[in-house]
UniProtKB/TrEMBL annotation, chain A:
Its main location: cytoplasm. One of its GO terms (cellular component) is nucleoplasm. The keyword Transport does not apply. Belongs to the TRM112 family. It is found in: Cytoplasm, Perinuclear region; Nucleus, Nucleoplasm. This is Multifunctional methyltransferase subunit TRM112-like protein. One of its GO terms (biological process) is rRNA (guanine-N7)-methylation. Keywords: Cytoplasm, Nucleus. One of its GO terms (molecular function) is protein heterodimerization activity.
From TrEMBL, chain B:
The gene is BUD23. Pfam families: Methyltransf_11, WBS_methylT. It comes from the Eukaryota. This is 18S rRNA (guanine-N(7))-methyltransferase. One of its GO terms (molecular function) is rRNA (guanine) methyltransferase activity. Residues 255-281 are annotated as: Disordered. Belongs to the class I-like SAM-binding methyltransferase superfamily. BUD23/WBSCR22 family. Residues 58-130 form the Methyltransferase type domain. It comes from Ursus maritimus.
Length: 113, 281
């Protein structure tokens, strides 16, 4: 699972609305995959992300800062989490990640209104 | 894909139907691969994404990643959701570029609002219409799916969902829940006259209403519209007629007006038209 996807994942357990995001990632096994760099795509996705530590420099005009975009590209698209867990900040519920696939299946109680 | 007589949804839940054997067909069977790839192509076409712009897309019921690979080939980045571990294993073996999630679409899409530029689904959502557990209510699961899908799409984005509806009631159930969730759009039916080639694409728009794409047909000179649109627009007069009580004055006046429109000879309306008669009538 790429970090771009992790950044946008949210807990969909009933009752945990907007606070079920972002999920805390604890990765135990990670792999780096080379992915073709596409500056337009990275620039478009950046506003959607939840960024905690934002480098103060390239905020205005980041679309043209290739170095910044390449860094973001590497972090978002080339880092692949293979094993680990995702934790909901609200409820503490854990979603395990196995072979790169997070298990987002909910139990019956969690889907009831 | 022709299921001889029995539909697979009647046999049990999808995570059991799509076991290792079924998954193997999606990897080995060239006809299966061909059909699925063609449908993925058509769905992407109907999505009308801006040209030359790589997008972040959602693939519902991604299975072994056949449709996802098509998206990757077109330069898009995608996330696939599927309920069958066997199918996802097959996808891992095929080394797909998109991210895979193990999840149940009827429980909602676990993403932040406004994450995706579009969504496709190939042959998946009809599985929501059958209740596999006693606690499942198809309408509720459909609504949960559509409302969460509406939320995770960027405003103005589309979703194109190819499905195999069992009958028109099922299609209506699906479209009703989609409308309730806020979507507009309609069903595009390709090759409606062919039993084998006929394909249903549910095209949903999450923003202001736009045009519905033209369906494919064998004779492309036919300009007949084969799409049924559904919006939350007011229903035309035909349905409003149902509100009028039969035999009332209003009904009589309406009937006379209709006959006048048809060009028939009708007595003029007077204060006595449709008046209450004595009981002996």
């Amino acid at each position: 699972m790429k970090l771009l996807t992790h950044n946008l994942l949210s807990s969909h357990v009933r009752g945990v609305g907007p606070r079920g995001f972002p999920l805390r990632l604890q990765a135990t096994e990670v792999r780096i995959n080379p992915v073709e760099f596409n500056p337009d795509f990275v620039a478009r996705m950046i506003p959607k992300l939840h960024l905690v530590e934002v480098p103060k420099g390239p905020i205005e005009g980041y679309e043209h800062d290739e170095k910044f975009l390449r860094q973001m590209h590497h972090v978002l698209l080339e880092v692949d989490v293979l094993e680990g867990t995702l934790q909901c900040p609200e409820s503490g519920r854990l979603f395990p990640i196995s072979r790169g696939i997070p298990n987002m299946l909910l139990s019956d109680e969690e889907t009831e209104t | 894909m022709a299921f001889c007589s029995k539909r697979p949804e009647h046999g049990g839940p999808p995570e059991l139907f799509y076991d290792k054997n079924e998954a193997r067909k999606y990897v080995r069977n060239s006809r299966m691969i061909d059909v699925q790839t063609k449908m993925a192509g058509r769905a992407l076409e109907l999505l009308y994404l801006p040209e030359g712009q790589p997008c972040y897309l959602l693939d519902i019921g991604c299975g072994s990643g056949l449709s996802g690979d098509y998206l990757s080939d077109e330069g898009h980045y995608w996330v696939g959701l599927d309920i069958s571990p066997a199918m996802l294993d097959a996808a891992l073996d095929r080394d797909t570029e998109g991210d895979l999630l193990l999840g149940d679409m009827g429980q909602g899409i676990p993403f932040k609002p406004g994450s995706f530029d579009g969504c496709i689904s190939i042959s998946a959502i009809q599985w929501l219409c059958n209740a596999n557990k006693k606690s499942d209510i198809p309408a509720k699961r459909l609504y949960c799916f559509f409302s969460s899908l509406y939320s995770v799409l960027v405003h103005g984005a589309r979703a194109v969902l190819q499905l195999y509806p069992e009958n028109s009631e099922q299609l209506e159930l699906i479209t009703t829940q989609a409308t309730k969730a806020g979507f507009t759009g309609g069903v595009v039916v390709d090759f409606p006259n062919s039993a084998k080639a006929k394909k249903f694409y549910l095209c949903l728009f999450s923003g202001p209403s736009t045009f519905l794409p033209k369906a494919l047909n064998e004779n492309n000179d036919e300009e007949e519209a084969r799409e049924s649109e559904f919006t939350s627009e007011r229903v035309p007069y035909r349905m409003a007629r149902r509100g009028i009580v039969r035999k009332s004055r209003e009904w009589v006046l309406e009937k006379k007006a209709r006959r006048r429109r048809q060009g028939k000879e009708v007595r003029p309306d007077t204060p006595y038209t449709g008046r209450k008669r004595k009981p002996r009538f």
